[in-house]
Fold this sequence. Notes:
Blueprint: E1 2-10, H1 13-24, E2 27-29, E3 38-42, E4 49-55, E5 68-74, H2 78-87, E6 92-96, E7 102-108, E8 114-120
Amino acid sequence: MRLDHVNVRSRDLEGMRAFFETVVGLSVGDRPDFDFPGYWLYGEAPGEAIVHLVGVEDDGSPEVPGPVDHFAFRGGDYDRQMVAINRAGLKTREVTVPGRPIRQVFVRGPESVTVELQFPA
């Protein structure tokens, strides 16, 4: 298993994109056709989006989560990890990435830290 990407929520999507491009040196690249605004930012390794940006609206609610939405890990054994999640009594949300053979399993841990586990669809 390895770290795949970090997902960052931003109320200023264009400002956040510019920061990661200018200061960090990442570049905007291919992103699946999700139904919400965002960018996938790539480093030097070809085909590896390492930061996913998601645009969010500021409705003034204190309930809006912080800027780091989740950490994503790729690999592992789906069946074994689902057994562990179920034994821990945790709920999951599963998503298939549009146009990609990737199954995402989202699970929330202590202190509301959300982890995305990626498996082949």
